[in-house]
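Researcher: Next sequence.
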Amino acid sequence: MSFFSDTDSPTNLTEYSVSDLSGSIKRTIEQAFDQVRVRGEISGYRGQHSSGHAYFSLKDDKARIDAVIWKGSFSRLRFKPEEGMEVIATGKITTFPGSSKYQIVIEALEPAGAGALMALLEERRRKLAAEGLFDTERKKPLPFLPKVIGVVTSPTGAVIRDILHRIADRFPVHVVVWPVKVQGEGSGQEVAAAIEGFNTLDPLGPIQIPDVLIVARGGGSLEDLWSFNDEIVVRAAAASKIPLISAVGHETDWTLIDHAADRRAPTPTGAAEMAVPVKADLDAEIASLAARLRGATARQMDNRRQGVRALARALPSLDQLLALPRRRFDEAAAGLGRGLQMNTVNKRRAFERTAAHLRPDMLLTRIAERRQRVADRVLRAERIVERRLDQLRARLSAFDVSLRATPARIKTQTERSRDRLKGLALRAESALSGDLSRRRALVQAQDRVLQSLSYRNVLKRGYALVRDEDGVPVKGAAALGPGRAIAIEFADGSVEAVTGAGTNPGGSTPPRKKPAKPEAEAANPAPRQGSLF
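Model: Next structure:
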């Protein structure tokens, strides 16, 4: 604040407040440098702030300027800032009045020339190669005859038509296209999401999982193909469980996804040729193999037939094979009659020798021997029966003695069992009495706890419990309006009442005038109620 008036000012200069001067400088700079392009090296970049903005500096060998990229502009950047990168930033110059600093608000960012892009590309390639993403050992072989082919490309370009046409010409199979942007902001994220999406398809879902993937794009400049150099795309290609063919650009164009893919095709058409064989060539090869198989089978049969004929010529004739057995049969047939005659003579001689020993006295002697043997066995059986009867009589006598002694034994056992039962009954009664005493003490302890926690003890101290017409306890005056039926429960009973219009739920209830106490009560005032706590 100035202590001089305009008329007392020693000069004709206009006075400004600090805020006015800062605002004027801010407007002047923003009008003069509304749109500028600044070339410099990124310094002090630490990634996005938690707010989503990015703060760093641009510098050269002589000066430095603060820079900021707001959250909305950062998400639209084609190239993300990196520490030490030489870039060309497009934006406007503004000031920060709070600290008298100026900065550039960047709206677009690009590397400073193709040389910078190539240097950035080479640095990123070395970083990913060091992680093993480009190793040959991790590359998967392509299936010989895939049933489903997944294609990640733009649905409107000529690339997809070339791929479909080439596949239809060579070997028609089912093709699933995942449409993505192949150039511009967000194209890298879409390509990576498409690769991951194909790998996470449900095997039982409506879309079949492809046997091979093709990531394709037509030719272009280094900037046009930059999306396929994004780290997120390279990592998605390296992590793909499905064999992946990279077909980005022309034959001379190389991107980082070409190193991470399982196979690189020089063109999208070449990728289609790698994915499927030529059906006509396969048919011709199968026909050639079938003809060779038929020829080999015919030649083998001819060779086997000639071998059988050679073996047949070496075998003897049927007459030669049967001559010896036929002679043996004839000799056996000639000697059969003589053999029968000799067998009959031998049998007759044996019968006569046996008949000479068959006399009546020998038969009588043998019958007497057998009769004596039978009598001896009868005597032995009678003696055995008598011994068995004696044994049975002895066992019956023993059983009779045991049965006579049984009543006394049973009586003794009964008395012992009765004494034992009495002892067990006394023990059970004592145990039951002790258990009942313990349980009665436990129940009494629980009852004392319940009594101490019961709200009725609080009512005995002079408090009251208010319930609404449904019997639900009321916790505050705001829950009741005028004219509501309530029940007030005291320690010795409950009364019914109706709320009036004097309740004030939002504030305190106005004090009511206390009625005059009787002289007896004034003379003997009741003791004051103690605190609930």
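Model: The chain has 14 helices and 13 strands. The first strand starts at residue 36 and ends at 43.
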